[in-house]
Amino acid sequence: MDLSNYQCAGLFDEMFQEDGTCRGHYHPFEKLLKRTHPKKLKQLQFSANKSQLAMGMTFNVYHNEEGLEKILHLDIIPRIIPNPEWLKLEAGLKQRVNALNHFIQDIYNEQEILNDGVVPRDLIENSKDFLKPCIGLTPPKGIWCHITGTDLIRDKNGEYFVLEDNLRCPSGVSYMLESREIIKKAFPNVLNKAGVMPVSNYPARLLNMLQNLSEKEKPVVGVLTPGIYNSAYFEHSYLALQMGVELVTGEDLIVKDHKVYMQTTKGFEPIDVIYRRIDDTFLDPTAFNPDSLLGVSGIFDAYKAGTIALANAPGTGVADDKAVYAYVPDIIKYYLNEDPILNNVPTYLCRKPDERQYVLDHIDELVVKETNAAGGYGMLIGPKASAEEHEKFRQLITANPTNYIAQPTLSLSTVPTLVEDNVECRHVDLRPYVLYGEDIDVIPGALSRVALKKGSLVVNSSQGGGSKDTWVLY
């Protein structure tokens, strides 16, 4: 493969420096690419696609009228992260999760951060994700956010920024695990020689974290899924299988005398810990959304009684609000008395009149986001939008300013990606996974999501993005 025509002018590229020389941690892979014929790379890519289908690594796009399941395209060229770089990310993620856990505990109990005016009280109390039934609640071991998938990006200078915190039901970890198995078969020798840290023990680490939530010696654990039509059902079933635990739906569970039981071939048996993949408000129709057909009536009362542990804890979604995100540096300083190791992307809160006016005046330069939207929806990328779209969002912001934030349009780093017979640069982000059990554990790998369309900054799978295996080096 000839890499001499690879161009990423003005951008930070993960593999190549500005002068075109390869970064040191990519040298073994560069040698492999240079001695591999393009036809062979295409064959490896074809095999990777077939492996994904065979494994059932598919997802359903909710807004796709065809309703077809698709693979999350796995590009065979990995994203490689050197160890010193990873150690800083690891420290920053641990700091962030620790502070956010303190924050969630506080706002549902003493509310000291609100009383001190560090975070506006109305911002929290008016958030649809602030669940009043959780007021006064302390979850088992005082842990709210057991599984976090934090989205990170890199700017043109190579500096990492946190784009958003995903503390509810972060998805994608199964793609990280299965992608490694596929790429291991494609490039077995170079992966071993490069000294890549393993991720295959994630299911064991996840199970250990879940079991830690119960006081029982051998707690029964289950994964609660909305069912086969959920976009992430592959992940739910995969993780249950890998952990050796039951995969259950709301119909499989029943609450009696504030205890939760699951239906088995032997009848109803008690269950102690549930890794829920159902949104907060659908969890219990008697406590939250009465129209929910996915949850379990009475499970929240059982949770409050301490007979069932839930991961993540109900109520964590309030920390996912994109307006709350803007205050995370202050949250870290408030609870830990530390400066953030990882910075936020600079954020304009449209709820503040002066910042709102700046956004309205510079909307063609900014990325505007709904505070509670996800998956690339409810978003405007100003430089790529039309004048009509700019005007539409100006009206939306003016009508409901609290519902919007805006950020500068960061370029995102690029990474070599196989496109037909060539290797071209494509924009990429990074989603590492953090487990919070006896301590905070950052998995040495990540889901790297890549924008497959040339020049696109949208990496979400629902918007046509793909993925890459992420190699963290020893």
Automatic annotation (TrEMBL):
It comes from the Bacteria. InterPro entries: ATP-dep_Glu-Cys_Ligase-2, CP_ATPgrasp_2, UCP005522. Residues 78-451 form the Circularly permuted ATP-grasp type domain. This is Circularly permuted ATP-grasp type 2 domain-containing protein.
